[in-house]
Design goal:
Mean pLDDT: 82
Number of strands: 2
Oligomer: single chain
Largest sheet: 2 strands, parallel
Distance between the termini: 50 Å
Number of domains: 2
Shape: elongated
Radius of gyration: 20 Å
Low-confidence stretches: 194-207
Number of helices: 10
């Protein structure tokens, strides 16, 4: 969930507590918010509804652990949807342009796997294994309820080349919901992340190839 969804989440949680005849404390709201932030609001609402309808446990006010159990299968769906966005962006946009996804976990997982340029350089034979690794890493973060730091933009060859030579950089391509992607970009960090050094080396190589091609046209 994004920060601007906090009020809607609070309303949802207050409604659930009211259904069970309980008051929602500020401390309880804080615990719930931290526990549910890695997940989509729609998924949280769906999990709440399924808990209420559960004949075995629905008579009890849900706790974060109850909702997390509901997410067991949902993290598979979320990871597959996230990979579908990455796969589509690689095929439609490529790694020449910088991109921003509407899901911060995508940025972190891509960084963990070596960066945008590294993933884009894999061949078709390796693609199923890349997909599997991405989904496994994504699910790991989601199931551990982690919201790790991430880069605001996944750097493409063009932006790396222009920044290195002092040229103007084009804005990144937004993937998915534009407003959520802008929120992801605003919430990212420029500090070092795992995998950045690898991505940086690949970027340097790509830039060198571009400069060689440009020199050949002179």
């Amino acid at each position: 969930m994004q920060p601007n969804e906090f009020n809607e989440f609070r309303t949802l949680l207050a409604g659930v507590h009211d259904f069970y005849g309980r008051d929602l404390s500020d401390f309880g709201l804080s615990v719930w918010w931290q526990a549910m932030r890695p997940f989509d609001l729609a998924a949280v609402r769906d999990a709440m509804n399924r808990h209420v309808m559960n004949p075995d446990t629905g008579q009890y006010l849900p706790k974060p652990a109850d909702v997390m159990r509901m997410f067991g299968g949902r993290t598979v769906d979320a990871a597959q949807q996230a990979w579908s966005k990455v796969d589509g962006a690689i095929r439609r946009v490529g790694t020449y342009r910088s991109v921003v996804f509407d899901d911060p976990l995508i940025h972190r997982v891509v960084a963990d796997m070596g960066g945008w340029l590294s993933i884009g350089s894999r061949d078709e034979d390796a693609w199923p294994f890349v997909a599997k690794e991405f989904e496994t890493r994504y699910r790991g973060y989601a199931m551990r309820n982690e919201r790790p730091p991430y880069a605001p933009v996944l750097l493409g060859t063009s932006e790396a080349h222009n920044a290195r030579n002092g040229f103007r950089c084009d804005p990144p391509t937004l993937i998915g919901d534009a407003d959520r992607a802008r929120a992801v970009m605003a919430g990212g960090t420029d500090g070092p992340l795992l995998g950045v050094s690898v991505a940086g080396a690949l970027a340097d190589k790509a830039i060198e190839r571009l400069e060689s091609m440009e020199a050949g046209h002179d």
